[in-house]
């Protein structure tokens, strides 16, 4: 499960909220506004709303902020406020021609998380439901929608040697991985010193360059022990995206031959 950092807020509110939102879709917006969630909330109060109408707000720096609680009836899209989650991206994408990668990636991760949490499959821009240009003509909606539909994965394989440079050894092969994965760490279940590190741009010599069908043999463990002939080893692999978050996991059991 991906860990998301959603920043809790304690926003001003005028009057009380109505409860009973049953979201079956996620609607994407831009506020045509630059600034923090508290300022945006105050702006919406001044416009006559009881508080911010969106449920989540994503700043240009990628930080994720809580808006109106999802359980409350929203104020993000006419006709959809009792069955939607509104996700709003800071900026004015009728004028901002590019979206910072941090904001786009945070948006993709948040929406994937919400889709899973609320069993939602429908994700659209505001303009799909209402006569508006929102989330803006330059908003990278197609990239966002492709990103949330893409399933993150690592596919691994491997083998074992009873004698590799004089010692038993395990060979891990990274067969394939989704394109959001930039780094893979793998280790023997009970033994973190027996590990593999792959990266598409290896930062140092401990890493092996990550590409499809790459393999790496290891025969070192804790305290100079070697792997044992005839034994089984469980290898766990995790794939990390460019924000350093785990987006995919896999495992394999390898047996060292007698
Ligand atoms: Zn909108």
TrEMBL record:
Domain of life the protein comes from: Bacteria
Entries under CDD domains matching the protein: PGRP (cd06583)
Stretches assigned to the N-acetylmuramoyl-L-alanine amidase domain: 11-136
InterPro entries to which the protein is assigned, alphabetical: Amidase_domain, PGRP
PANTHER family xref list: PEPTIDOGLYCAN RECOGNITION PROTEIN (PTHR11022), PEPTIDOGLYCAN-RECOGNITION PROTEIN LC-RELATED (PTHR11022:SF41)
Protein name per its UniProtKB record: N-acetylmuramoyl-L-alanine amidase
Organism of provenance: Clostridium mobile
Lineage: Bacteria, Bacillati, Bacillota, Clostridia, Eubacteriales
């Amino acid at each position: 499960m991906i860990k998301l950092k959603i920043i809790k807020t304690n926003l001003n509110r005028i009057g009380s909220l109505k409860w009973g939102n049953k979201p079956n879709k996620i609607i994407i917006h831009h506020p045509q506004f630059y600034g923090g969630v508290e300022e945006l909330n105050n702006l919406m109060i001044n416009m006559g709303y009881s508080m911010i109408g969106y449920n989540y707000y994503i700043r240009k720096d990628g930080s994720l902020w809580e808006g109106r609680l999802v359980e409350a009836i929203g104020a993000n899209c006419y006709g959809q406020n009792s069955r939607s989650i509104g996700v709003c991206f800071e900026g004015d994408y009728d004028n901002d021609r590019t979206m910072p990668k941090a904001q786009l990636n945070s948006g993709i991760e948040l929406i994937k998380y919400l889709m899973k949490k609320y069993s939602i499959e429908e994700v659209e821009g505001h303009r799909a439901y209402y006569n508006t240009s929102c989330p803006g003509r330059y908003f990278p909606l197609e990239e966002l929608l492709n990103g949330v539909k893409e399933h993150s994965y690592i596919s691994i394989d491997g083998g074992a040697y009873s004698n590799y440079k004089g010692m038993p050894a395990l060979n891990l092969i990274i067969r394939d991985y989704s394109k959001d994965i930039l780094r893979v760490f793998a280790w023997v279940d009970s033994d973190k010193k027996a590990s593999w590190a792959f990266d598409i741009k290896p930062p140092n010599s401990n890493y092996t360059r990550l590409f499809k069908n790459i393999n790496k043999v290891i025969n070192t463990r804790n305290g100079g022990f070697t792997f044992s002939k005839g034994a089984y080893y469980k290898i766990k692999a995790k794939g990390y995206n460019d924000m350093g978050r785990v987006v995919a996991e896999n495992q394999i059991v390898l047996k060292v031959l007698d």
